[in-house]
User: Fold this.
Amino acid sequence: MNETEILNAKILIIDDAEANLKLLEDLLAREGFHQIISTADSTRAIDLFKAFEPDLILLDLMMPELDGYAVLEMLSRHISKEEYLPVLVLTADATIAAKRKALALGAKDFLTKPFDTIEAMLRVWNLLETRVLYSHLKSLNTEIKPIIHTK
Assistant:
């Protein structure tokens, strides 16, 4: 695995605040990521997820119409159990209940706003590194399985 593989990752950002979208887009671009799609309309989340096939989703919880919890529930119906697709929740809701609920619904990490930008980027890198390693392992498993014979 190399850095280029991680920097080629597709990142989907879902947050109803345009300022947050711009901040995250700028942070990711400065970090070297270039495949970034964002939306302030959470009702577009699943369509964008299907069309873009992201490697990482950055998700706000408190949004009108569909909140982040509803988006997590919808995503869980579209992500195979054999797949590792990290969702990093970014929210102003710092309660234990919010963390537990988001993590129980499939989020892989959780940051409260306002967040430290360096910490946020480190978490992005860690989640994407795990995604890439998981993909490598999965492809190795696929290559090995047909060779194994059982009696």
